[in-house]
Design goal:
By secondary structure, the protein is an alpha/beta fold. 35% of the residues lie in helices and 19% in strands. The chain has a 7-stranded mixed beta sheet, sandwiched between helices. The two termini are 33 Å apart.
Amino acid sequence: MTSQVSSPAEQADEASEALVGGQRAPRSDHAGDGEKEIRRLDRVIIRFAGDSGDGMQLTGDRFTSETASFGNDLSTLPNFPAEIRAPAGTLPGVSSFQLHFADHDILTPGDAPNVLVAMNPAALKANIGDVPRGAEIIVNTDEFTKRPMAKVGYATSPLEDGSLDGYQVHPVPLTTLTIEALKEFGLSRKEAERSKNMFALGLLSWMYHRPTEGTEAFLRAKFAKKPQIAEANVTAFRAGWNFGETTEDFAVSYEVAPASQAFPAGTYRNISGNLALSYGLIAASRQADLPLYLGSYPITPASDILHELSKHKHFGVRTFQAEDEIAGIGAALGAAFGGSLAVTTTSGPGVALKSETIGLAVSLELPLIVVDIQRGGPSTGLPTKTEQADLLQAMYGRNGEAPVPVVAPRTPADCFDAALDAARIALTYRTPVFLLSDGYLANGSEPWKIPETDELPDLRVRFATGPNHELADGTEVFWPYKRDPLTLARPWAVPGTPGLEHRIGGIEKQDGSGNISYDPANHDLMVRTRQAKIDGIEVPDLRVDDPSGARTLVLGWGSTYGPITAAVRRLRAAGEPIAQAHLRNLNPFPGNLGDVLKQYDKVIVPEMNLGQLATLVRAKYLVDARSYNQVNGMPFKAEQLATALKEAIDA
């Protein structure tokens, strides 16, 4: 995307010191009598926070959708508890949604919110440490009573003890105002209270001049079977808007212009990583002219892919929710044998259970996409937090020599292209493929340019149709392991095709014929051939962004792309020479990676693990790649990375 920011320093300012309501306020429209001031900003970071039952994710989603329709660039960070219903009013039960939107190209959800909406004391206490001085805080004063404050350790009210004096605090009795606005509907107090998130959404929509029609239509559609509830939510939403318009406490509203120059011409929509990945799989099946089959077992944060694909039977998609992880991948591998584009989705714990069947897919040499939406571990770990710690598991987490290609998207929208690439590799080379996304990409969202169908790759494959080998006596037979000389892929023979009967199973195959073989020399040949097939996969060369002849390279993979790029922008704006490269293909590595690494004196590898890519790079290329690691369940912050990279440059 092309930035509209007027100087490199401004372009690098991904999330610097906050001013009122945003990073900068370049100009204002000073109001006349009875009119409120409108300030123009180039970017804003908002965080909605409340109890896990307060609807913060829905509120954030709706604000994001309206922001996308307005034309801003955006990036989001949902953050919620692992429990279905965490204890109300407690710190572990706090759910938040952060949105960064701007009039130019941005890369991350932002380091620190300019505006915090805190629905209760727990939300305030859990998030206040991230809020810079001078920022705005909107608090629901109705919840700041003795018992809720005591639950989170407030001996006195932070609204009264001076602890928030460094912030612009807007005390708003959200619950009371919502109940008052909904009197005409005859709802119980509890039912009316549930709409307070819509009141807050209306207030923020007024504050930042967001469109409202889409949200009202969404509410009426969501509660179509309960029209009274639908209208109550719409009324609460409008009441929040009107409150902002009329109250004296909000003397200023803000405008962030559309990012009209940040995007190439085209049709855009807001999309999350899991949704983009789902669409990518459907597109791949259509481009391959194959039915799409998903064999899966629900697991956070991958379940949304199962939910989404189940909606698209009209595109030839079949979804099977199995009784466990092993059954899910077993069904998917069976579908691959039967001629489908087969997929199984999971997270790290599920990969462990699927590992034997992945090894079977390696032995059978069938196309299978294994989607791993990584999360914090080990074991159950942090189900709703992000991590990049499954790379070595994807590379080596099987018995025997069982090499598998690995592909990793870098942004939510890039999950679409990564799914197409994984399908290309699986179908072309007849192999299972790992697609490594993570919770940050899966749940985060950004604008996505909807591609034209003629821009998508042709993924069509040819099934075997008859004999492909002639014996010494002239007999024509079908050899299931006779390989394509370019790709080393074996034929894909759909069961039921006359004359193509062949053995399958996990026992070693004889080269060519596919008969069971215990011959040591044959096993050595097959192991080396399967490895050579993976090593020979065609992947693009690694592109390096180095405008200044730097001596330090920052190398990343997966979802670290946004924070790394934001940090690199900052350093370059400050005059620091630094190069950047980001890996999509992790097995095999791009063919030029070794030469790239040797061009730099220092190679820094930021990862949300304890150094897994750095370990692979050091082992394969014998370079002193240095790790910068974080495993706290959250993505890197741009300022944090910029500081670490500057220290590495100066070391």
